[in-house]
């Protein structure tokens, strides 16, 4: 029961953020902090002569998207 209340609170918070930022004209620090928990930047690799670098974004409320 407690877990459901906690999940409901997270969902409501997420919905409130979405409503607040529906008309975003410019991405700023406030919006980034609201939706992104952290960004993982992995070491660069050279593949077929091209430098590539993996980046993983961990979002608040939903985690990462693969």
Care to describe what's here?
By secondary structure, the chain is α+β, with helices and mostly antiparallel strands. It has helices at about 1-20, 30-35; strands at about 35-40, 45, 50, 55-60, 65. β2 (about 45) and β3 form a beta hairpin. It is elongated, with a radius of gyration of 17 Å. The model has no long low-confidence stretch (mean pLDDT about 85). Helix content is about 40%, strand content about 30%. The strands form 2 sheets. Strands 1-4-5 form a 3-stranded antiparallel sheet. It has a two-stranded antiparallel ribbon with strand order 2-3.
- How much of the residues is beta strand, in percent? 25-35%
Number of helices: 2
Distance between the termini: 30 Å
**Multimeric state of these chains?**
single chain
What is the number of E strands? 5
**Stretches where pLDDT falls below 50 for ≥5 residues?**
none
Into which percent range does the helicity of residues fall? Answer: 25-40%
Overall radius of gyration: 17 Å
- Main sheet makeup: 3 strands, antiparallel
Helix-strand category: alpha+beta
Q: Name the helix and strand elements from N-terminus to C-terminus, one letter apiece.
A: HHEEEEE
| General form | elongated
Largest sheet, spatial ordering of strands: 1-4-5
Q: What value does the average pLDDT take? A: 87
